[in-house]
Design the sequence.
């Protein structure tokens, strides 16, 4: 995933570092219509210090620079803590049905 992301909008692969220690990472992207936050995680021992907020804000800045008007993300419905996190930084639940299909690699 990292290898692929580095080929497309590599500036939207962000890491958080504290004195040389990797404490968090996230991947976002803009497809020309919407921006998406795909992955975000902060190491357990570094949580509740504002690092995820900083990473999301940095990703939003990067998305804005690409002309992105809106950011979406998907979180498993049972992941209440993550929902609480995103709500705290201004994201709202939008009622949608999320659908997907895995594609086999092109031959
Ligand atoms: C969700 C996650 C990214 C938050 O990271 P974080 O660095 O702790 O978040 P912040 O410190 O920026 O939190 C900002 C605010 O969000 C809210 N918040 C964060 N974690 C929360 C939790 N576990 N429960 C409730 N509210 C929470 C709080 O309002 C918090 O402010 P406060 O600490 O002053 O109360 C982190 O808990 C995580 O990596 N979780 C596991 C990975 C994951 O599931 N990622 C998302 C799927 S893509």
Sequence:
């Amino acid at each position: 995933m990292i290898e692929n992301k580095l080929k497309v909008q590599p500036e939207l692969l962000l890491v958080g570092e504290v004195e040389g220690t990797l404490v968090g990472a996230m991947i976002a992207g803009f497809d020309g219509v919407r921006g998406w936050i795909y992955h975000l995680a902060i190491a357990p021992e570094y949580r509740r210090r504002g690092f995820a907020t900083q990473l999301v804000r940095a990703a939003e800045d990067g998305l804005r620079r690409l002309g992105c008007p809106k950011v979406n993300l998907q979180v498993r419905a049972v992941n209440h803590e993550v929902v609480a996190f995103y709500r705290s930084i201004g994201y709202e639940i939008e009622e949608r049905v999320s659908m997907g299909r895995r594609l086999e690699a092109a031959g």
